[in-house]
Design goal:
Layout lengths: L1 H8 L10 H8 L2 H25 L7 E3 L12 E3 L1 H23 L14 H34 L1 H11 L13 H4 L2 H29 L19 H6 L4 H17 L1 H8 L9 H29 L7 H17 L21 H4 L23 H7 L56 H18 L2 H7 L5 H6 L3 H21 L9 H19 L23 H20 L10 H11 L4
Helix pairs in contact: 1-8, 3-4, 3-8, 4-5, 4-8, 5-8, 10-19, 11-19, 12-13, 12-19, 12-20, 13-20, 19-21, 20-21
């Protein structure tokens, strides 16, 4: 049963709640309700087995009442509260374990950086597993005792009415201070809960070990019926995410340690002489990196326009030029095909796209709603039409004429032959239009919206539930970055090996696209870490429950990205001067060549 739940609820991309209300929604989800109910049932079964094994006063749920109880002993049965409290403890431990699994992402299956043999990994994790189970059992018993002290009479009355049992008035009830100060009872509760949690933790550990085991996919096959099992097909196909992650992990490993399999990646098809293997692998890796870049750009623009003045033309040009820079180098690789893109949790963009007709991933932030209550006065002043009577109208010092500075996000087509930058879209005069006056109904609804907003903002509980958790949006944005880390490692190691192993020059045709994609992503990552809410250093998690590697994925991605670019520049050196790229990309690449980045 536990193995079935692990197989049903596991994920390789953790679900990160960006607010308390989102976390509450996960806990109250019907799917989570089924999971909690199954854990409660399993907890009751294990607690019943423990009660039978303990024996004595814990063995049965009922016993014949004594004559001193005021009932006929031959006909009446009394409730054995020691057995009953043990069964309820199993249900409570199962419920708390299921809820903690949602809070700490215990269904998340991480991939280790250093691969180990299964036995050695299990042996090394067993001591910490026992310690974690004992500690969690201690806290669960403490919470259970408090709950049973205040609410224990409710299930006790229900079970007595259901099974037609009576309460023995000659013994102290366990939902009292005298009854709960039984050291033998507390010890049995702690041992039973620890055994139950240890069983679940061992099952989860074994599941993670076997699921994340390294699998070697064949690069190419001589038989057509086995082509769907090859590495290029598995990476580019619509496969389960665990299979896609295993394929990317195998790509990162073969690019480092297998010269024979690298030669298959660089090989040409017969007949035809086309590098299908390299094209499929590089196309999917660049698609993953481009998708992450677009998400970072959209998130940065969302944060920049949320209540702060931001140049519309600059933001539009930056986004448009970045999209051009990303897509221009990969037009030959990005042929139409179904792709399985990683998804970012919608709560990351929830605050900025409510009521919008287009997603921030598809629509540039060039036309914000100035009537929105979230539009700042400075933003309205920037977008207001210029007054012709103003002494600054039409001059170079006009605040409506933007000065363009070199950006990494531009492409070679942005610079002209004579060196003069093209005119900014914001500086192009447009015919003045009379703004349409909103109707009375629209004004009334807008005023009501403002009143409701201010009313809710004054309520502490509402703000506590809806405020963003610290760094949660950043963690959710990089939740699937393990795939991007493997894509970066695979591409960089393959490019490095192609310097001496690529006999047909298949990698050289995609080298400008790879370098441009990495440089744009590196700039986007740097901009993200400069945001006020983004931490620059990983924080060690104080909790031993679950796995906290997903909280440091963005730091691992930043280090892997910089290492990948250095790996290519160190290998090719001055030969990169012959690679066609924009002046800004070349300037940025020169910093890596001079080890200044």
């Amino acid at each position: 049963m536990v193995g079935f739940l692990n197989l049903e609820y596991y994920t390789v991309i953790p679900t990160i709640a960006c607010s308390k209300i989102a976390l509450l929604g996960q806990l109250l989800h019907p799917r989570q309700f089924v999971n909690s109910l199954a854990h409660c049932i399993m907890g009751i079964i294990v607690a019943w087995c423990c009660a039978i094994a303990i024996g004595g006063r814990y063995e049965t749920i009922a016993y014949p009442c004594t004559p001193g109880d005021g009932a006929d002993s031959s006909h009446q049965m009394c409730l054995n509260e020691h057995h009953f409290i043990l069964l309820l403890a199993g249900a409570f431990v199962g419920l708390s374990h299921s809820m903690l699994g949602v809070i700490y992402n215990m269904n998340y299956v991480p991939f280790l950086t250093v691969q180990q043999y299964k036995y050695l990994r299990f042996k090394g994790s067993l001591p910490s597993l026992v310690k974690c189970s004992a500690t969690q059992a201690l806290y669960s018993v403490r919470n259970y005792i408090v709950v049973y002290f205040f609410l224990g009479y409710i299930p006790k009355a229900w079970i007595c009415k259901t099974l037609n049992l009576h309460l023995n008035s000659s013994v102290h009830p366990l939902d009292s201070i005298a009854g709960l100060l039984d050291l033998n009872l507390l010890y049995q509760l702690w041992v039973s809960a620890g055994f139950l949690l240890l069983t679940w933790h061992v099952t989860l550990l074994l599941f993670r070990i076997f699921v994340t085991e390294v699998y070697s996919f064949p690069v190419q096959s001589s038989f057509t019926e086995d082509a769907h099992q090859c590495l290029p097909k598995v990476i580019t196909g619509k496969q389960p995410m665990i299979l896609k992650f295993l394929a990317l992990q195998d790509l990162a490993l073969l690019s480092q340690h297998s010269p024979l399999r690298r030669s298959e990646v660089f090989s040409l098809s017969q007949p035809g002489g086309h590098p299908h293997n390299w094209n499929a692998i590089s196309k999917e890796c660049l698609s993953l990196l481009n998708d992450l870049t677009q998400r970072l750009i959209a998130y940065h623009d969302t944060v920049a326009t949320n209540g702060r003045a931001k140049s519309l033309s600059t933001g539009s040009e930056r986004k448009t030029s970045s999209e051009t820079s990303i897509s221009s180098g990969t037009e030959d690789l990005m042929s139409p095909r179904p792709t399985f893109l990683m998804k970012t949790p919608a709560s990351v963009f929830a605050r900025s796209i409510v009521g919008a007709s287009q997603s921030p991933l598809t629509a540039p932030f060039t036309s914000p709603d100035l009537d929105s209550p979230f539009a700042s006065p400075a933003l309205r002043r920037l977008t207001a039409p210029a007054d012709p009577r103003s002494p600054w109208f039409g001059t170079v010092q006009s605040p409506h004429i933007m000065r363009r500075v070199p950006k990494l996000w531009s492409t070679p087509t942005d610079s002209q032959v004579n060196g003069s930058p093209p005119a900014s879209p914001a500086s192009v005069p447009s015919p003045k239009q009379e703004p349409s006056k909103p109707s009375l109904l629209a004004q009334f609804l807008q005023n009501r919206k403002e009143q409701v907003k201010h009313f809710l903002a004054k309520r502490v509980l509402i703000m506590y539930l809806f405020n963003k958790l610290p760094e949660a949006s950043s963690q959710a944005l990089f939740a699937d970055s393990q795939a991007h880390i493997w894509a970066l490692e695979g591409l960089s190691y393959l490019v490095q090996a192609s310097f001496s192993e690529d006999q047909f020059g298949v990698v050289q045709t995609a080298l400008p696209s790879i370098l441009g994609c990495m440089l744009v992503l590196q700039e986007a990552v740097d901009r993200h870490f400069k945001l006020p809410h983004a931490s620059s250093k990983p924080v060690r998690s104080a909790s031993s429950l679950g796995d906290s590697t997903h909280k440091t994925l963005r730091f691992a991605l930043r280090a892997t990205l910089k290492t990948a670019i250095y790996r290519i520049t160190t290998t090719f050196g001055n030969h990169l001067s012959a690679v066609q790229m924009s002046a800004e990309h070349r300037k940025r690449l020169q910093q890596f060549l001079e080890n200044k980045e």
